Amino acid sequence: MQHTRTGDARVTSPVHPVCPAPTIDVDRSDPAYRAWLKESVRKVQADANRSADTHLLRFPLPESWGIDLYLKDESTHPTGSLKHRLARSLFLYGLCNGWIRPGKPVIEASSGSTAVSEAYFAKLIGVPFIAVMPRTTSSAKTRLIEFHGGRCHLVDDPRTVYEVSARLAAESGGHYMDQFTYAERATDWRGNNNIAESVFEQLRLERFPEPAWIVATAGTGGTSATIARYIHYSQYDTRVCVADPENSCFFDGWVTGSNDVSCDSPSRIEGIGRPRMEPSFVPNAVDRMMKVPDAASVAAVRALEGAIGRRAGGSTGTGLWSSLKIVAEMLTLGRSGSVVTLICDPGDRYLDKYYSDDWLAGQGLDIRPYAAAIDAFLATGEWPDHAG
Questions:
Q1: pTM exceeds cut of 0.85
Q2: In this protein, which residues make up the domain named Tryptophan synthase beta chain-like PALP (predicted)?
């Protein structure tokens, strides 16, 4: 299922909740606090300064198609995922707003990868970190959070992560980071080496330097907002497509124009898909959305391993499936150009899920029709009708 925005269909962006002021327990003019703040900001900025840019990899397509497909490999960040960029921005935002304070914990609601990255930055500046996550979060992620010095607070109902995080922050005098509200505003979308600026710079010497499409997936919605805003700001003609998994309300909210849609079942594709329209998702900025079956996401991420020898998480498969469908549409229309999507995190975090046939069977997911569709498309250039 897919939709392109036409006519006057609009989605009104949700109102951002006001972040409650933290308990005033520190004199912000105190020299000791100002010294701690300056040193903390320096450490976070230094992490960016010593980190190289991530690679832009090519997915092999027949040269005769006249279409290039790229994957921005965000799994090579120090904490192994796209969320490293977000966590760095959120920490700088929280520090510069005076919300993160010495000795007080940072609390985050997360499905795992953001929490891994935030635990890293919390350890870097010497504050405690608590991740509030669904109990179904992969064990590899919880181990990584604990490796970086964080503590995991697991909940049975994923819909409660917001209120539990806020409660823990209030009880501890800490700061609830709230990525689902602040992701889109904490990132500098005008430039400063954000992910969009990096993609366009890396494409500069390619045969199609301005991509026809960039395909993103949405957890907070911060990445799609950053990419779309940068494109509009830079006056490119590139379009942005957001691929949404099952058990997520973003697609329905985008299509219907409602902020009140919800989903009772948790997403099986970790890191993306949400039970509510998150405040940080900016639907009016994107051009198109696709709803992707979870079995198709898994089939695509396994096809990625066969194509370039890299394992990635399920969210990468969601974006890749949509990218391949866009490539098929371009072929049908006789258009050349380039398409870009993301490798969001490494597959070794999900060996017991997306790379486990037992897990697939337990979830009732049959990836064989989707794997066959990908193989047929790459062999013939025609998208099978049954693949949707």
A1: yes
A2: 54-345
